[in-house]
Design brief:
The structure is a single chain. This protein has about 375 residues and is an alpha+beta fold. The protein folds into 3 domains: about 55 residues; about 80 residues, Tyrosine recombinase, N-terminal domain (DNA polymerase, domain 1, Orthogonal Bundle); about 170 residues, hpI Integrase, Chain A (Orthogonal Bundle), CATH 1.10.443. The protein has a 4-stranded antiparallel sheet. A two-stranded antiparallel sheet has the order 5-8. Helix 2 runs antiparallel to helix 3, helix 4 runs antiparallel to helix 5 and helix 12 packs across helix 13. It is elongated.
Length: about 375
């Protein structure tokens, strides 16, 4: 006969097939009959754990639904997340969610465990995905599962308990900065046209590309001595639109160094409604079109590495730091919200390092 358990633990017995069964009463049906639920496992310990977990989930109010898939919940999370980030950032989230759905899409939400998350991220490393890409995947899945836990759909967030993935090999950084020699060459030999002067101005002001593309003549001082950042180009569903700058601290007025002012004046005096515009429509330029022209200009220049336009911003921060400008001042000029971000942009040039260690010669004299 089934062994009776005390304190409402239900009946526990070993079946003929070797499995242990524990049956508990859940309550009463509409017709007054008792309602039972049975659990099965290979050992007494396992079946007791299953019962305990079930009771804990019931007590915590979990809305257990084995039919709710990761794909369905990710879509719900994405829909409700609109408005919490900029339109362009929200649009970019779709690609990361697609990658996660390719892996976990049809898996029941409550069946996703830390080991599944770890296995997926490790495979992404082996496939050669960048550290930033893997960080985005982990970060977004963390937010999706965190919201599921907050809505009592799962007991705990599996991403929180998954080990962080270590990169097995050092990856090349795409966030480099130009050397002083490269800057001099660009200042002297870039063409006397819109793309040439735009690159010079990026180096001399540290503007983001999206901020440059949203400039109107009114944003540039009449003598070219300063530039006001009040808006930026953002991509929404593949279409460039004018929107606010990246953050609140991105609203700023940037002093333009004297040798870079001719570039500011060139762009101001040759602008239509915007400094950069699509010739057919007279509207603002798509960032991808700008990047193509930027790359072509550097290729034709020669003896300069083909770094991304954003590396001009890294160069600006690094050169200011090399000249001894306080980090807080650099933060304000770059429009960074946190000083940690400013530090992330620093690239100490070899000549600066050599000059620093040369000071040690005084100890040996």
């Amino acid at each position: 006969m089934p062994k009776r358990r005390s304190n409402g633990e239900g009946s526990l017995h070993k079946r003929k097939n070797g499995l242990w069964e524990c049956t508990i009463m859940l309550g009463y049906q509409e017709d007054g009959r008792r309602k039972y639920k049975s659990f099965y496992a290979r050992t007494q310990k396992e079946v007791k754990e299953k019962v305990a977990n079930f009771k804990q989930e019931q007590a915590s109010g979990l809305k257990l639904d084995k039919t709710l898939t990761f794909s369905d919940w990710a879509d719900e999370w994405y829909k409700n997340y609109e408005g919490q980030v900029s339109a362009s950032t929200y649009d970019n989230y779709r690609y990361t969610i697609k990658l996660l759905k390719d892996e976990f899409g049809e898996k029941p939400l409550m069946d996703i465990k830390p080991v599944h998350v770890e296995s997926y991220l490790k495979r992404m490393v082996k496939e050669g995905r960048s550290h930033s890409s893997i960080a985005k995947l982990r970060g977004m899945m963390f937010q999706i599962m965190k919201k599921a836990a907050a809505n009592d759909l799962i007991r705990k967030n599996p991403v929180e308990f998954a080990d962080k993935t270590k990169m097995t090999k050092k990856q090349e950084s795409s966030k480099d900065s130009f050397t002083a020699k490269e800057i001099q060459r660009m200042m002297l030999f870039l063409p006397d046209n819109r793309i040439g002067h735009s690159i010079r101005l990026l180096l001399g002001t540290g503007m983001r590309t999206q901020e440059l593309l949203a400039l109107e003549p009114r944003h540039i001082a009449e003598d070219g001595s300063s530039i006001k950042i009040e808006q930026a180009v953002t991509m929404v569903k593949g279409t460039p639109q004018i929107g606010p700058p990246k953050t609140q601290t991105s609203y700023r007025e940037i002093p333009v160094p004297e040798k870079f002012r001719p570039s500011a004046l060139f762009l101001r005096n040759t602008a239509m409604r915007y400094v950069w515009y699509a010739q057919r429509s007279g509207r603002f330029c798509n960032p991808s079109s700008f990047r193509k022209q930027y790359k072509t200009a550097l290729e034709e220049l020669g003896d300069v590495r083909i770094l991304s336009p954003h590396c001009c911003r890294h160069t600006y921060v690094s050169q200011l730091q090399a000249q001894g400008v306080p980090l807080e001042t650099i933060q304000a000029l770059a429009g960074h919200t946190e000083i940690d971000m400013t530090q992330h942009y620093l690239h100490v040039q070899p000549e600066v390092k050599n000059a620093a260690v040369a000071l040690l010669n005084q100890l040996a004299s």
